[in-house]
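Hello again,

I reread your note about wanting to compare the complex against the isolated chains. To keep things tidy I'm splitting this into two emails, and this first one only covers the full assembly. Below are the input lines as submitted, including protein chains and any nucleic acid or small-molecule components. They are followed by the predicted structure of everything together. The single-chain runs will come separately.
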Amino acid sequence: MSRLGNLGARLYRGEVGYDFIGKRKIWYGVSILITITAILGLAVSGLNMGIEFKGGAVFTTDTKAKVSVSQAHEDAVAASGHEAIVQELGNGGLRIQITEVDTKKADQIKAQLSEDLGIPEAKINADLVGPSWGEQIANKAWAGLGIFMVLVVVYLAIAFEWRMAVAALIALIHDITITVGVYALVGFEVTPGTVIGLLTILGYSLYDTVVVFDSLKEGTQGITKQTRWTYSEIANRSINGTLVRSINTTVVALLPVAGLLFIGGGVLGAGMLNDISLSLFVGLAAGAYSSIFIATPLVADLKEREPQIKALKKRILAKRAAAAAKGESAEDERDDLTDDLTEPAGAVVGQRRQPGGHGRTPRNRR
Amino acid sequence: MAAPKKGRGSSGGQGRPGRALALILIAMVALTGGMFLSGHTTPRLGIDLAGGTSITLKAKSQPGKPEAINETNMNTAVSIIERRVNGLGVSEAEVQTQGASNIIVNIPKGTNSAQAREQVGTTAQLYFRPVLTVAGGAPTPEGSASPSATGSGKPSATPSAKASDPETASDPKATPSDGATTQGRAVTGALKKDATPTPSGASESDAPAATETPDAATAALQKKFTELDCTDKAARAAAGDGVKPEDPTVACSSEGDAKYLLGPAEVSGTDVDDAKAQFDQQRGIWLVSMEFTDKGSKKFQTITKKLSTQQSPANQFAISLDGEVVSAPQVNETLSGSAEISGSFTQQSAEDLANVLSYGALPLSFSEDTVTTVTAALGGEQLEAGLIAGAIGLALVVIYLVAYYRGLALIALLSLVASGILTYTIMALLGPAIGFALNLPAVCGAIVAIGITADSFIVYFERIRDEIREGRTLRPAVERAWPRARRTILVSDFVSFLAAAVLFLVTVGKVQGFAFTLGLTTLLDVVVVFLFTKPVMTLMARTKFFGGGHPWSGLDPKRLGAKPPLRRSRRVNARTDHPKEA
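Full-complex prediction:
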């Protein structure tokens, strides 16, 4: 633990740091790979929509079953191979809903249920049910999503700048694609809970990105007024500066969800929770990852194309080259440079820090 | 130690944390008290968690329209019923079709199921039809129809007059305020007339006179009209059955004290854009005001223009709802845009009507087939497993926070508890207030909200620690870190809130319920950080344990790797504090 505490301090001072921006191509590659896998998974296995979206078969009994509701649930799942919704009615009968099955299969399930529940087949009434989450709800949800995306881009463009808005949006799409893809690959049935989980991810992904961007914005204030660090270098400092926060927040957000998914779903067998907790778990992890590894490097990439920032980089490189040419030994120069980088670099504005001699930046370590 | 304390106090920071804390504590106590007083100590739970009532509606086949019960109409009916029962979008009711002609409506426990049953089944086919003839409710012996008619019937049903004295039987046009366009006033005119105790005005209305070119159909209708007995409830309800909107029809007043011969529908419920229940202060009655769509407004203009030139009773139009005449105001001038329906509404019935008008008429009429209770869709054992798992997850969060933040974790946990109390009490109170029901996805959303709430503290704590690494002592560090942390928290929470607001406004059903939970927890996050975490932090900074940087406070400068301060005597301060600590 104290090592962790020290890590925070060392990250803060730039004694340690990971070169997120410099190695961005690797992470872009990783993300593209995962995204492609996710899309492939989606294309191949498709999403397994649950009864709430597709409707399905409903079996109603008039008489009391000889087994408990939860036993009936297990039986129904076993008989159909799908997740089932089992409810006890006022008269003691059961209502069992199972996702779309064909007639033959429905008869088979009915026979199986009759045996399991100890109710004569004639007393089980089979019928079709429509979706409780109809197309209209889905369409409105899409419309809402569209409007939200537009508004959030406008807001980020005003509060920050359009480059950050674009990067945040890309990160968001990245997170959602991965979550949906994993869902398709795992093959869980999509329930309203899954959709709600995805929407939660949407909020969280943007939230997390904005926190990182806020520190980036702070770090790059007045960047053109100095000639020591390029935009990418400062961006990297900002990420490292908020790294502890990012890790802590992610851990705190993921632990309860992991509890639900692995302990609740895996060990205790609360199958119904799996759908929500899986989408939350994957989405939260992807959201935390993309804020650091995708969104911020993307901003840096976009930013470095801006004429002002380009010119700044040129000046800085020229200055460094000049310094090198002044005859200092290569080793010394490197140290100098590193010193520069280890400076707070405005990651927190207004700090005064003496240049420390601890030259262990990523650049140096390489 | 005393001297520095005074100094701190005079810096102005002292009074405020206390006030903020008092505020939030009062809020917490008030909410908790309110919760116990109201007797709703648990949030209402959704069907998936607590079960509820299940209503099965069967579509009535309509004579002459065997194909009316089809998939399209059933789906339309489902989405309309869905909106009706989920008026505020947070009640988590479920609506789905079953078989070819049934609709199942599942309503969570604790909902007023009688009211819900009323709402889901109401067809709400609303038409504005010109009145051709009016008569009393009972079957009319030939000829004598008119006199008794008007006096008793409608009039009482159509109170709308804002402007005029209802007693006045005189010419409605005399009312000065009639010049204004609102429908209400026109209605007023009608009212006055109707309200007149003397049936005299009506006497001249020989119904048949209004009917032109009597042909067979008209004669049949006339016969039907004569025979109609509105005092009989069944007959009243059946009066307009199976009549197409474009045909003339007979209808009873909803009270059964008058009957009407009505022309073809000129404006229908689909022309209504929005409807609201309103209380008319002056008259002390409930009414329903409607805004028309552009198209509806034009139609309404046409009909009122035509009617305003007619003689009584042909200058009335009837507002017929599901075949019964709710009110039949007189028209004195051309109107457009909006209208009011006033009848003998209670608050409840006005709200119900406004609700169904806003959300549209059902394409089919339904009868209640069965009503039964259903248990939770999630098995109790599964739920228990989920709760245990969630608790373990939360315990891990606590362990992690304590391990990393040590003493600071206490503040974080207190803040989470404060946030938890606020969330819980508000949710419990919103159950009875707006029908808010908590379902499983919402519970999971609340668990993720722990992460977002905790993030606010973490952002703040990290800022404070950064300041300490700068060599500052805790008190200034707490104050300097706050503005920056505050900005980060506000900017990022705004994004979450934006998501919640947009989704709440645009969507329906479960998504809306989710958006509500998200918005609520986001707002509470801001409230707790501003009114609780920050003030507590300020207060804690004054204690020896935290302010002195005790190794277990999580703010020990040495552990944080604070630099020896360059400037002045910070280190000296820190040193002087330490011995006291030890």
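For quick reference: The longest strand of chain B covers residues 126-136.

B.
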